[in-house]
Structures are given as structure tokens and as C-alpha cells.
Amino acid sequence: MKPGPISIRLLPAFLLIEAAVLLATVVLSSCGRTDRAGYTAEGVSKLLATYRFETVKDVRYNLSFIIDTGRVSPVEGTAVIEFERTSGREPLVLDFKVPGDYLKTVTVNGKPTEAGLVNGHIIIDRELLSRRYNRVEVSFRAGDLSLNRNDEYLYTLFVPDRASTAFPCFDQPDIKGRFTITLDIPESYRAMSNNPVVLADTTDGRVTLRFSETKPISTYLFAFAAGKFELAEKEIDGVKMEMLHRENRPGYVENNADEIFRLHYSALKWLEEYTQIPYPFDKFGFVLLPPFQYSGMEHPGSIFYRASSLMLEASPTLNERLSRASLIAHETSHIWFGDLVTMKWFDDVWLKEVFAGYMSDKIAGPDFPDINHDLRFLLSRYPAAYEVDRTRGTNAIIQQLGNMKDAGSLYGGIIYNKAPIVMRQLEQLAGEENLKRGLQVYLNEYAWGNARWDDLVSILEETSQKPLGEWSRMWVREAGMPIIKPVIAEDNGYRISLSEDDPAGTLRHWPQTLKTMVITASDTITADLQPAERDSYITTADKPLCVIPDISGRAYGTFLFDSISAAYLTAGLPEMNDPLLKGILWINMYENLVNGTVSPVVFCETALRDLQVISDLQLRNYLSGRFSSVWWNRLTAEERAARAAETESMIRGKMASAETPAEKRSWYGTLRDVTVTPGGMNYLTILWKSGELPGETLRGDVPPGGKISGAVMLSEDELCTLALTLALKGHPEADRIIEEQRERITGKERLERFDFVIPAVSADAAVRDAFFESLRDPANREREPWVLEALGYLHHPSVAERSEHYIFPSLELLEEIKNTGDIFFPGSWITTTLAGHRSPGARVTMEKFLDDHPDYPADLKLKILQAADHLFR
Fold first, then answer.
1. What is the DSSP annotation of 297-363?
2. DSSP annotation string for 538-564
3. Peptide bond into 579 cis (omega under 30)
4. What are residue 336's DSSP bridge partners?
5. How far apart are CA 758 and CA 734, in angstroms?
6. Pure H helices in 107-167
7. 143: which DSSP letter?
8. Distance CA 712, CA 689 (A)
9. pLDDT at residue number 367
10. Distance from C-alpha of 581 to C-alpha of 653, rounded to nearest angstrom
11. What tens digit of pLDDT does each residue of 686-729 get?
């Protein structure tokens, strides 16, 4: 039960629910039956979804919305919903999750009706419906929850079940519809939706835009954006593309637009070749949104992106360019994998995500021919997957889902990162060409419809002629990962095998082959081994100096080193030259640190030595990030203080001598993150004042391959971050620095973001407390990236002691955040809250919360256990 004040606030809603249940009983009793809880329960139950799929076909939505400037005026709308109904046994249930007075009128087949709202549904008497063609007309006020209204623009975001918060619909993925939309907007606005504009009429300062009818799409893929946007267009080899954006910083559009268009074109052409299906929709466009909740969302014809993910700073780092290319490839892949063929129920949401991730890794290759792509896959997938899969709150790739209202909780590190690893295993198991042919069959067979994972498995078993059922059960339907350790036995020499432990204690076995390396004084031996197999081992006459369980970069699990191997690697890792092997070992070193095999001090000292010699920038960026994390989250304050001056000096020297802007920025980011000494703080202040990173020489792009002397200018966003970091770390002139940085900011939205975050770094506890209290209001959580940035400062490890008292109320808010926020927000909220805390008190607070809430929603409990894993170690 909620604490008193929250219960009081919810009392009116409780009474409304009682009335709604009574209304549902009356309506359904008139249809001859009274037990309809599964149909009219809040959300979309699997029972309701199954029944509607069987009885509702050929759906068309004709929608219109009247949009004014600002965020206060109601958005009025009408919906004409046409469909064929194949059965008349039950009443019709439309989804519309808004306050009761938002529903204005309902007309069914030309007859006005007094239909009301029941638990977010419009219940229509079956007597009003035809056995074939039906037409339902609704006038309404659109709910604001997923309209994302700002002063000068709005945009929709309906994934996974939020379309029904804006207009009446069948809000489930397997009832696809054809959408026609008309927008009445101010003349100063531009708009984009899934399809092209076919009519534009301007009258009295207003513009009416009518968009052509879409191909069949699920409700979560329908979208529109309207506001004060700029339009950029480009055509490449007959492919027309359009982009809406709000970028006003000098040079940003000129420096980024052509590359953004080129990356989309490249991804489209690659996918057309791979799938053998031409681009299936009627237009290709995208919108860049400043505070967008996700990196991207794949609405066909109108992909939405977070602007900062595509509009990069001058001299972007390799990671930034790779991330942009991968993001564009990911969202474009969804056009085929998710939009053309959609999962039948959201428990298979991973299916669209795994193919988008799998394809994006392949697509990015041609755009970065000098990149080690095996290393890139390793670094981008494995650490993020392990962060979840090692925890008590891990989940299987395929999860159970009883109601669409819980679908947002399915998203996370497992489907975005473990699933592509598993898919690469499948490619190896089935054969690359067999997988490709199977996917082509899959897309053609289920085009414009829905499919499940088991449908694809059946196709792949046919194209590969290999049984995949047991492999699928262990890797896709089971949670967790094996713990694999070397076993060294003296047997007329030495015999090395691999043990496999199930962290759940259920003796599960994950089928996979590891390429194991054994290093002795006289030899290096590699062989393919299967964990826990009696006849799978390596023999050697000499005692092993080091055993590395896997060097392929394809196996998956927690690979623990024995003490002799750990000592060998910490001494010799910086001297190794193979970037892929180094990446494998550093990922494993971190997992060994988490499991207590390697100490934080040894990890940091080894990392610092290796950072000075690593030439691969993506590997250096990964290790720099891990070093910063261990520096703050694993070392004690005394251990940091003993190493701080030397560490800062080394990083400053490497930054000064860096030969490219990207390298210099990479070193600068590490320096900004780890600096703690007064001298280091003074140096960062000098950088902030000058706005540049000084250096000896820089190898620039102009002239190509030549060298230029000079500095790298810090961008406005970088200067904002630096100012906030100085304030967070207790700079004596923090207030002056913050105020001067405010005066430097040129864009309205960037200033609003900066102002939003400032209280989180305040030295005044009252200011920080007031900021946290403000987050109880959902309106103050609407710009989720801003909230997460502020929470990152509020709970930074350097100030964890002063922010520990926010943990319990943050946990209390989690259920509400799930209901009012977007799909990634609950997990991100609790992860950002707990990440900087390691005290026994933080663990006690978390455990007390769970003990006090024995009936807490299972999906959110898993999110908490994932975020709190470090508190148990």
C-alpha cells in the first residue's frame, strides 16, 4: 500500500474506477454475459488482443487534429475508424486512455451512442455493429501523455501502447491499420507524418495539411511532428529524403546534413540488397528533436531521432561517428524488421530489435573500412549485456507479457545487446548464407503482417537443415549466463579443461564452443573446447603460466581467471599488440574485478599503463570509460588521492601530445571525469575560461595528412558540461562559473536544459532537495534526458553520501514513472539513482523498500535488482 499522502491523492481515481467497473458490468450484461474482466481490464490483456485479432480485419483510421502554438490549448481531434468485423458474439472494445470528459461524441454506423470510457476503453454494444463493414466516428480531446508538447513544437511517441492515449484505436501490434491524417496547424509550423502531404491549404494564418493513406502499420508506428522546424531535403540516385530539424548553431547543419543523408541512403541500399525487397513505404523522412527520449524511433517514413545523436560537434570522436552510423543503420533496418514485418505480441519485441542491431553492425562496416569491426561488436555488445545478465534481476531474451500496459518493461540491455550476440551465434550455427536466405523467406512470407520467433526458427531449420530447438531454448528462452573457469589437472603433464557453473544452481548447460589459449614457458596452444565436456581438454608438458578461456570474441559468459593467470595478464597485458585480444581480456578483467578475482587498484594501475600504449581509439575509449568508472566506484577516497596527481599529469601529457582532435577530445573527457586535485581543478578552470584544448601539434584534415599547430575549440555543450563538473566537484567559484556559462549559451533550449540541471550540482542542500521534490510532478519529468543528466550529477560517486537520502523516495516514484514516462525511463531512472552508491546504507535502503513492498510489480523489481547488483558485491 502507498504511504498516506499518495493514497489521498489517488482517492478520486479509485472512486472513478469503481464507477467504471459498474458501467462495464451494465454494458456487458446487456450483451448477455457479465464476466468480461479480461476484456475491459486496464490496458490490453492478451485475452482481449487475441479475441480482437480473430474478429477485426481491414482497419482504416482517418484522423484529424487541431494544433495551436504552445502547450496549453487542448488538441482537439476526430477519428473515423472503419473495419470489418467477422464475429458478433461480444461488444467491441476500442482503446482510449484519457480522462472521461475527453471523449465527446461516438457515432456507430451513423447512429449516435452514449458509449463511455471503462478502464481506458470505449465499449460499443454489439447490437450497433454489422457483421461486415463498420464505421465508428469519435470526436475527442487528445490526451497529452504522448504528444510531447513544447512551446514551439510537439511530436508523438506511441511505442509500445501509447497511441490510445491520443486517439481511439485498436492498440495492439497485430491489428495493423491504414492511416490518413489531417493536421490543422499555425502557418509558422511545418509538419511530418508517415506519408507524403497531398493537400496543403492556407487560410487566416492556419495551414491544413492532409497526408496520403499509409500502408498497413501497427498503431505504435504511426507518428507525426509539428512545429517551428527547418526543412532540409536531398536526393541521391533517385532516393528522395527530407529532414526536419531545429538546429540553429552556426555550421552544424552544414557540417552534418550531407553525411546524415548519405548514411541513410547507404543503409537503405544495403538493406534492399540484403533483403531483396525494395524500400516498401511511400516516402523517407526523419525529424531531429532536441530532447527526444530515445536515440531513435523507427516510424516508417518519419523516423524520429535525438538531435544530438546526429548533429555532432566539430571534430567528433571515432565513437561518436560510429554511434551515429550505427544508430541510422539500426533505425533504417527497422523499416524491414519491425515495420514491414512486426512481432505479433510485444513479448517478441526483441525480434525487431535483434535484427536492427544485427543489421546495423553489418551496415556500418563499409562506412568505416579502417575499423576493426569484430572489436567494435565486442565492445558495443558484450559489456552492456553483461551489466544486466550478471545480476539477480536478469531476464531471458523472450519474456512473458500478459498485458500491453507492461510492455515497456521488456526493453533493456538483454534484447539490445545479448540478443545480437546470440544472433551472431545463430549465423555461425546455421551458416551466413542460410540465415540470409531464411530471412528473405521470412520477410516475404509475413510482409505487412506479424510473425513470432518460432515462425522464423521453423524457416531457418528448413534453410539450414539443422535442428535449432534446444539451442533456442537455452539461449533465447532462459535467463542468465554460465560461469566458466579453467580447470588445471596434473596428469602426466598438465590437462586443461573448462568447468561450467549455473549461477541459478539448476545445472543448466549452454551449448557453445570456446577457443581457449594456454600459455606456457615454451609454447602457446589454442584449441576449441566445450565447457563441462569430459573429452574436451588441452594437454601440455609444461605448467601453464596463463589460461584464457576464450580468445574468439564470440563465446558468452563470465570467464574467470585463476590467480596465476590473473597475475600474468596484469603484468603482461600492456605489452600485447592484438586489439581484439586486448578487448576480450579487458572485458574479462572487468568481470573478474566485479567477481573479486582482480582488485580495483590492480585494474586501475594496469589500465593506466595500457592506455599509454593503445593505438586503437575505440579500444582506448572503452578502457578510458572503464577506468573512470572503477576510479570513482571501486577505489576508496584514499586510493584515489594516492594516485590522483600522477594520473592527472599523465592524462594531461597525453592530451597535449595527441595528434588528432578526436584523440585530444578522448583524453580530455577522461581528464575531466577523474580530476580531483586542486591543481587539476585549476587546470580545468583554465580550459573552461579559454574554451580550448591546447596542444603541441595536431594532425588535421586540412591539409590532408599534414600537420597544423594549434588548439581544439571546446563546443558549447562541452563547456556546459565542464562548468557543471567544476561546480559538482566543489570549485570555490562555482556560482560565478555557472553564471558566466549561462551568458555564453546561444540557444534557448540549451539554456533551458542548463538551467534545469544546475540545481543538481548546487552546494546548497536546500536547493538540491527542492530540485528532487520538483521531480515528483510528472510535468517536471517530461524531458527525460534532462532528468537523467541531472540525476547523474545528483548521485555522482563523489557526492554519494549527501544524496543517499534520495534513494528511498526515488524507489517510491518508480511505479508512477513507469505509468507516466517512456519505455526506457524507469530502468534509466533507477540505474542512474543507484549507480554512484556503494555504501551499506544504500543496500539497506533498497532491501527495506523491497521488504516493505512484497507485492511489488515483478517487472520493476527486476529493474531494481539489475540496478543494485553492485550493492550485493
1. E--TT-EEEEHHHHSPPSS--HHHHHHHHHHHHHHHHTTTBTTTBEESSGGGHHHHHHHHHHHHHHH
2. EEESSPPSEEES--SS---SEEPPPHH
3. no
4. none
5. 11
6. none
7. P
8. 14
9. 78
10. 27
11. 999 999 998 754 444 333 333 334 588 999 999 999 999 999 99
Give dist(CA 539, CA 696) in Å, integer.
Answer: 52
Q: Can you tell me which residue has the cell 516514484?
A: 813
Q: For residue 151, give the nearest of 204, 217, 208, 73 by alpha carbon.
A: 73
Helix (H, G, I), strand (E, B) or coil at 108: strand
Under DSSP, the state recorded for 715 is: P
Q: How far apart are CA 621 and CA 611, in angstroms?
A: 9
Residue 491 pLDDT: 82
729: Cα within 13 Å, side-chain hemisphere: 21
CA–CA distance, 50 with 54 (Å, rounded to integer)? 6
Q: Kindly calculate the radius of gyration of the chain based on its CA atoms and give it in whole angstroms.
A: 28
CA-closest candidate to residue 245, choices 284, 185, 290: 290
Give me the DSSP letters along 162-225. Answer: TGGGTS-B--STTS-EEEEEEEEEETT-EEEESS-EEEEEEETTEEEEEEPPPPSB-GGG--EE
Distance from chain centroid for Cα 685? 34
Tell me the pLDDT tens digit for each residue of 599-625: 999 999 999 999 999 999 999 999 999
Q: Is there a contact between 264 and 360 (Cβ–Cβ < 8 Å)?
A: no
* CA separation for the pair 77, 639 (Å, rounded): 61
Average pLDDT over residues 661-685: 95
For residue 848, give the C-alpha cell: 527495506
CA gap 399, 391 in Å, rounded: 16
839 Rama class: left (phi>0) / alpha (psi -120 to 50) / beta: beta
**Of 806, 811, 800, the residue nearest 846 (C-alpha):** 811
Q: Is 753 exposed, middle or buried (0-12, 13-18, 19+ CB in 10 A)?
A: buried
Adjacent-strand bridge partners of 297: 304
The owner of cell 570513482 is 632
Choose among 680, 675, 752, 679: nearest CA to 720. Answer: 752
Give the residue among 655, 577, 657, 647 at the shortest CA–CA distance from 619. Answer: 577
Complete edge-to-edge strand list for the sheet that includes strand 111-113: 111-113, 103-108, 133-141, 76-85, 56-66, 177-186, 206-211, 197-203
Say what the pLDDT of residue 31 is.
38
Reduced to 3 states (helix: H, G, I; strand: E, B; else coil), residue 811 is helix
Instruction: Give Cβ neighbours of residue 416 (< 8 Å, ≥ 6 apart).
Output: 353, 357, 384
